[in-house]
Write a structure and sequence with these properties.
The structure is a single chain. The protein is of the alpha/beta class. The protein has a domain of about 210 residues: Rossmann fold (3-Layer(aba) Sandwich). The protein is about 40% helix and about 15% strand. Strands 3-2-1-4-5-6-11 form a seven-stranded parallel β-sheet, with helices on both faces. Helix 1 links the parallel strand 1 and strand 2. Helix 1 packs across helix 6. The protein starts with a strand and ends in a 5-residue tail after the last helix. About 45% of the residues are buried.
């Protein structure tokens, strides 16, 4: 009997791609693709189960299929269809709690892989130049997807203590980019005009969506000789880009906004489709974040195919078709210009 792999978040592009990929791996007998909504893409020979991980029924799915490997990808910063931020948070946090409770009761589960984010480190002015996996944040994220990721990781650590027989791997991904990226940062970078924080040029790291699939495969399989695929790992492409470099490579103009006005800019951006321009996202675009990937290479045994710059270039090649309509561009620029003028001396 080969492995039975359950993948959450199968209706999303990343989840669907991983489902199609993992079923081709030697030693994988069956793949169970789970989501609360039916996917709009093919899942190959995987069996799709429409189930909401926020509900106790997920335990029945694990038991019925004798699942031994769980890959939890339904942790995200963007809504799928209707629902908005509240539904996303509930799926991220409550969904993870229910899934872990089901895994704890399942004697067949042997391996758990969880998609997390480097946003758990936060972004602050006195941050270290490079975060290690063991570096505590200066201040815990207070909202948005970053706070969700912190809570998710806390529940995962509790599960690992209760089920020490299960190999648990947490992958903290840098900002995921590529042709089909659907993260809040990808939405921000797709704007025709990029609001930036006046006086700051943050350093950013990216990981290509193809590399995300590759490292998920490594984490979900039996460890190779000399590697250990349990623990917590930062995952990012080599090198960094500043936000100014990103804007130039995209050919997007920037609008520097004084820091006190940035919160209002976030409100304006949400009205034109940027789903999570939260305070944590603003801090990232102010102070940036860079993480060490030594453990990813030396312990997990993974070397990304794309550098940060190459992942960004592949993303940038596909952005022209995603521009907002002219009326949305006009509204965005008008709101930003108004906010900037209010912050100038002698205004407001």
């Amino acid at each position: 009997m080969g492995k039975v792999v359950l993948v959450t978040g199968a209706a999303r592009q990343l989840g669907g791609r991983f489902v199609r990929r993992v079923q081709r791996e030697p030693g994988v007998d069956r793949v169970i693709a789970v989501d609360a909504e039916p996917p709009g893409h093919a899942l190959g020979e995987a069996e799709f189960v429409r189930a909401d991980i926020r509900r106790p029924a997920i335990a029945r799915v694990l038991a019925e299929h004798a699942v031994d490997t769980v890959v939890h990808l339904d942790v995200t910063g963007t809504p799928l269809g209707a629902g908005g931020r509240a539904a996303v948070k509930e799926t991220n946090v409550i969904g993870t709690m229910q899934l872990l409770g089901a895994c704890q009761k399942s004697p067949s589960v042997q391996r758990l892989v969880v998609k997390s984010s480097t946003s758990v480190y936060g972004s602050a002015p006195r941050d270290p130049a490079v975060f290690l996996e063991t570096t505590p944040p200066k201040a815990l994220p207070s909202g948005g997807f970053a706070k969700d990721a912190v809570e998710v990781e806390g529940y995962v650590r509790g599960f690992a203590r209760r089920r020490p027989d299960v190999a648990v791997c947490v992958l903290r991904f840098a900002n995921i980019l590529g042709p089909s990226a659907d993260s809040p940062l990808a939405e921000y970078l797709s704007l025709p005009v990029l609001p930036t924080v006046f006086g700051y040029d943050p350093r950013l790291q990216f990981v290509h969506e193809d590399d995300v699939l590759d490292v998920l495969l490594i984490a979900s399989e039996a460890p190779r000789r000399g590697t250990l695929n349990s623990g917590t790992f930062n995952v990012a492409g080599d090198g960094v880009l500043t936000l100014a470099q990103c804007s130039r490579r995209l050919g997007r103009p920037t609008v520097p906004v004084p820091l006190p006005a940035v919160t209002w800019v976030g409100t304006a951006l949400r009205t034109v489709g940027v789903s999570d321009f939260s305070p944590e996202q603003i801090r990232l675009l102010t102070h940036g974040r860079v993480v060490s990937t030594v453990q990813m290479r030396e312990t997990l045994g993974f070397v990304p195919s794309y550098t940060t710059a190459e992942a960004f270039a592949d993303f940038a090649r596909t952005r022209d078709a995603g521009l907002l309509p002219p009326e949305a561009v006009g509204r965005t620029v008008d709101r930003l210009s108004t906010l900037v003028s209010k912050e100038r001396p002698g205004h407001g």
